[in-house]
Amino acid sequence: MAIGLVALVVLNATTGSGRLSAAVAFAGVAACLGFAAFGRLGRRGAVVLTVDSDTVYLGNERNGIVSRPLALLESVSLRGPAKETDPMRGAADHDLRITGQRFLVLGFRPQVDDHGVEAVPAETWRVGVVHSDPAAAEVVDRLRSVAPEAKPDPTRPDPRQGDPTQTRPTQTGPSAESIRTDEERPVPPSGPRIVDAGSDEAAERLWEEATRRHDEILRDYGAYELAPDLLLRFPAVTDVTLEPVQEFQLALDEATALRTDRYPGSRARADAYQQAVAVLRRRWIACETNGKQIKTSYFQASDQADLDRALKLYNHAQSSTAPAEQATYYGRVRDIVTTMTDRGVLHPPEPAVAELHAVTRRAIESRQEP
């Protein structure tokens, strides 16, 4: 604006042409307004942080959005405000702080694939949030209900604690939080609920989505029940003596009991089933994640060696084209599994054992054919 006015004065003093002066002044003012509008209306990259029933989504509009399993979230803390803005320049940069805003520090455990290989390493994300925004506060509450608050560094004094040399009253009993059971702990919301659906058609669609997720979990778990190689590689996924497996089995029984062949018509019944499936999905993710992480490490060294040898024998049998070799390898695997089961060390699902006996029998029969 000032540029246009200065140009108008100068041109009037030098040229005396009113039309030329007006045109130049108008162009200067228009350019200034254009730059100002671009600065206000130009597209700006936004930081994204959201969560659904089992996934956390993070990133920005410039570099894209990534997802991480909610079950791998192990710590959450709110810090700041940030002193600078980091634009997340690359895929490996997990810093999304915004100047003047508080930010969440999210810690994720590493992800492992079906072979037990670390697919995504442990990560720490710093994501700017406007905590006064109700939507942002809801996301923070969801994350905190899943993962504990990150503990401060014990080597750094906390100014809120005052003088550490002064004596303080000691707690004589467990806190209320420490004695709460898993059922009493808050459960993160699992998306739109059937009971709140705006119409019967919407409620039925949500019920159908719950049945689809239920079937998906059954297929995933069924793979571990039927595949002997998965039993040998990840026995903890189906070991009923382990707590994550027990919790999954209880959730599976609950969801199965509430499932009906058709939409039940009662929203309360349908909603109860939907919420049971949401719990089941979280329990399954926790169960599978735990099993893939610990693999066979909870066995004694000699038992770990037996399982490793059995897995190698099974793979040799799978790759062999000679029935005699297959029968020998499968038979040795069966003997190892049977011995460990009889000792009470291994707790395999019956379908996996039945499949192992079946492939052994087929190999023996093929060897005996003329």
UniProtKB/TrEMBL annotation:
Region (Disordered): 145-200
Ranges of compositional bias, category Polar residues: 163-175
Domain of life, per lineage: Bacteria
Compositional bias ranges of the Basic and acidic residues kind: 145-161
Record-given protein name: Uncharacterized protein
Biological source species: Gordonia soli NBRC 108243
Lineage: Bacteria, Bacillati, Actinomycetota, Actinomycetes, Mycobacteriales
